[in-house]
Design a protein that fits this description.
Elements lengths: L16 H50 L13 H69 L8 H61 L2 H35 L26 E9 L5 E11 L2 E5 L7 E5 L4 E7 L2 E8 L6 E5 L3 H15 L7 H9 L1 H14 L3 H7 L13 H4 L1 H19 L21 H5 L26 E14 L6 H16 L6 E8 L2 E5 L6 E6 L3 E6 L6 E9 L7 E10 L3 H63 L15 H19 L1
Antiparallel strand pairs: 1-2, 1-7, 2-3, 3-4, 5-6, 6-7, 8-9, 8-14, 9-10, 10-11, 12-13, 13-14
Helix pairs in contact: 1-2, 1-3, 2-3, 10-12, 13-14
Subcellular location: Cell projection, Ruffle; Cytoplasmic vesicle, Phagosome; Early endosome membrane; Nucleus
Membrane topology: Peripheral membrane protein
Protein name: DCC-interacting protein 13-alpha
């Protein structure tokens, strides 16, 4: 290292201005060292705090993994393989936590202690000596001032002695303080290098020790364990994919004929009422009186069990007795201007209940079923056996579909064991007629799709997020490519589009239902037809999961943003959105048609219709999209007007330049003509040769020559 600058201690008694100036330099250096070391101390303290936090978090993770087997999960709580695997992970992470704790201790001893000592001891010592030296210097100056004021005429031995003693004491104190202060400043030049290098050396040694401990813990047995776990995860993923594919195929087989069953009030001609039922279940609205003239209606699930009418609220594990319907009476009634109401009165007339069915078919079937139970027909097997033989084929094909689309399938499974063993559930008229209606509705849908939707068009039920592969039609519509990421913790890096300059920013919560390619994009009926087809396909394939996203409407594009990661899933350029509409009855449903290049055929433009569900904001979203397109249209018109104005200004500027250039050319020609005319005339110079005198005839000839030259240049 280069030599160390020092203050001359020998010159402290002289206390010359040069010494004081050099002292100021050293004091300024000490102040700079103090500021820099404070910043370095804060940075190293952050490292130490982060290491402590990492050690505590690792220990907490190990503790939670150990407590997994003590958790009481409703499903899969007795998985011994998972418990043992997590126990093994907890041991490994606990060892890593111990290594981190050792690293924290080493950082405290080898890194934080030296820099803290330098900051708290050495730098404070410099500040203290500086204050003491300043006081001693002031006292010495005051003593010298008093000594200088001693009178020469009136000498007082006592006063002279006191002042002399004061000068002696203050000068000695200043000299001693100054020497110690100079010594501390000189020593500081060495200490600052030690204070800089020693913490860094301790930090590196602690890290090397930590890495050595980690390499000792990560042995071949642990690597084999991690390899086995990775293989197990891949096997579980393959098993999950196979199971999902099997379930999807089962769902498709079960829900082929389910599309007509979604109509709340079906046509009685297509769905005849089954009057032979002795068992029925479904949702009904029950009237509850809250006052003399006021009442409320509560929707609950009702089902018959033997001679009892049972009710069950949504979320309850089991149902309760609503009414004994043996020997009861039931009839249709008019109540509070509501449709499909009927009243049940117990056999003793002390209890009655008014219920409302969802459709006319359910209304009549409930009345017939309760009448049959009231007559105790359910105790005889003849009506049910006859009905089952008559509807054997339809029940075998469509009963599973009815159970799959019922509002609470788990309820039927819970109470299947409560029903009598000898009684099998009869099929309904809705089931018996579903085959013919399904074929008829399929033909009508085929005709409608043939005119509005491209034939053999697949339906996309999920959106392409940045963690998915590119799929045809989606990548081009979104304007961004997808990429695969590691499903075990790698975070996707979403790219933010430049929408901060947009005037309009409106955010809506939407759920993606599906998308498909369409033939037409100039008629709102294509959106309605696509909604119907996607909802029907979701019901047929039993797809009830919907991806929730945030729809951001700007003047440039529509964006689907992941609500958790804020990553842009899809981007729809606003000029490509050519049609948008809400459902005519269900205002939560809305859709838009996106015109893209390529698609199924690269030679022409293709149109894809996207359907979403919102929280009663379908019309607001469409209005927002319309407003965005209007703003974009006005912006485009303003841009074109601005470009046109700029083009006009450029033309004017070009014309002005051409005119200036022409004037310059004329001026140059005129000047050349004058020079030529002047050189062709005889010169009449004075005796000194300084002036040329032209006669009047020569001036006229020059003027005529210039006019001729101008005419020639103009020609």
């Amino acid at each position: 290292m280069p030599g160390i600058d020092k203050l001359p201690i020998e010159e402290t008694l002289e206390d010359s201005p040069q010494t004081r100036s050099l002292l100021g330099v050293f004091e300024e250096d000490a102040t700079a060292i103090s500021n820099y070391m404070n910043q370095l101390y804060q940075a190293m303290h952050r490292i130490y705090d982060a290491q402590n936090e990492l050690s505590a978090a690792t220990h907490l993770t190990s503790k939670l993994l150990k407590e997994y087997e003590k958790q009481r999960f409703p499903l899969g709580g007795d998985d011994e393989v998972m418990s043992s695997t997590l126990q093994q992970f907890s041991k490994v992470i606990d060892e890593l936590s111990s290594c981190h704790a050792v690293l924290s201790t080493q950082l405290a001893d080898a890194m934080m202690f030296p820099i803290t000592q330098f900051k708290e001891r050495d730098l404070k010592e410099i500040l203290t000596l500086k204050e003491v030296f300043q006081i001693a210097s002031n006292d010495h100056d005051a003593a010298i001032h008093r000594y200088s004021r001693l009178s020469k005429k009136r000498e007082n031995d006592k006063a002279k002695y006191e002042v002399t003693e004061d000068v002696y004491t203050s000068r000695k104190k200043q000299h001693q303080t100054m020497m110690h202060y100079f010594c501390s400043l000189n020593t500081l030049q060495y200490k600052k290098k030690i204070a800089l290098l020693e913490p860094l050396l301790g930090y590196m040694q602690a890290q090397i020790s930590f890495f050595k401990m980690g390499s000792e813990n990560l042995n071949e047995q642990l690597e084999e364990f991690l390899t086995n776990i990775g293989t197990s995860v891949q096997n579980v993923r393959r098993e999950m994919d196979s199971d999902v594919e099997t379930m999807q195929q089962t769902i498709e087989d079960l829900e082929i004929a389910s599309d007509p069953l979604y109509v709340p009030d079906p046509d009685p001609m297509k769905f005849p009422v089954n009057r032979n039922l002795t068992r029925k279940a479904g949702y009904l609205n029950a009237r509850n009186k809250t006052g003399l003239v006021s009442s409320t209606w509560d929707r609950q699930f009702y089902f018959t069990q033997g001679g009892n009418l049972m009710s069950q609220a949504r979320g309850d594990v089991a149902g309760g007795l609503a009414m004994d319907i043996d020997n009861c009476s039931v009839m249709a009634v008019d109540c509070e201007d509501r449709r499909y109401c009927f009243q049940i009165t117990s056999f003793d007339g002390k209890k009655s209940s008014i219920l409302q069915a969802e459709s006319k078919k359910d209304h009549e079937e409930w009345i017939c079923t309760i009448n049959n139970i009231s007559k105790q027909i359910y105790l005889s097997e003849n009506p049910e056996s006859f009905f089952l033989k008559k509807k054997e084929t339809a029940a075998r094909v469509n009963q599973s579909a009815l159970e799959a689309v019922t509002p609470s399938p788990s309820f039927q499974q819970r109470h299947e064991s409560l029903r009598p063993v000898g009684q099998s559930r009869p099929s309904t008229a809705r089931t018996s007629s579903s085959g013919s209606l399904g074929s008829e509705s399929t033909n009508l849908a085929a005709l409608s799709l043939d005119s509005l939707v491209a034939p053999d068009t697949p339906i996309q039920f999920d959106i392409i997020s940045p963690v998915c592969e590119d799929q045809p039609g989606q990548g081009k519509a979104s304007g961004q490519g997808g990429r695969r990421t590691n499903p075990f913790g790698e975070s996707g890096r979403g790219t933010r589009s430049e929408t901060e300059d947009s005037i309009l920013h409106q955010l809506f919560i939407v759920r993606f239902l599906g998308s498909m390619e369409v033939k037409s994009d100039d008629n709102p009926d294509v959106v309605y037809e696509t909604m119907r087809q996607i909802l029907a396909a979701r019901a047929i394939h039993n797809i009830f999961r919907m991806t929730e996203s945030h729809l951001l409407v700007t003047c440039d594009c529509l964006k689907l943003i992941d609500p958790q990661t804020q990553v842009t899933r899809l981007t729809f350029p606003l000029p490509s959105v050519v049609l948008y509409a809400t459902h005519q009855e269900n205002k939560r449903l809305f859709g838009f048609v996106l015109r893209t290049s390529g698609g199924r055929s690269e030679s022409h433009l293709s149109s894809v219709c996207y359907i979403f569900e919102s929280n009663n904001e379908g019309e607001k979203i469409c209005d927002s999209v319309g407003l965005a397109k209007q703003i974009a249209l006005h912006a485009e018109l303003d841009r074109r007007a601005s470009e046109k104005q700029k083009e006009i200004e450029r033309v004017k500027e070009k014309q002005q330049k051409e005119l200036s250039k022409q004037k310059q050319i004329e001026k140059d020609l005129e000047e050349q003509s004058r020079l030529i005319a002047a050189s062709s005339r005889p010169n009449q110079a004075s005796s000194e040769g300084q002036f040329v005198v032209l006669s009047s005839s020569q001036s006229e000839e020059s003027d005529l020559g210039e006019e001729g030259k101008k005419r020639e240049s103009e020609a």
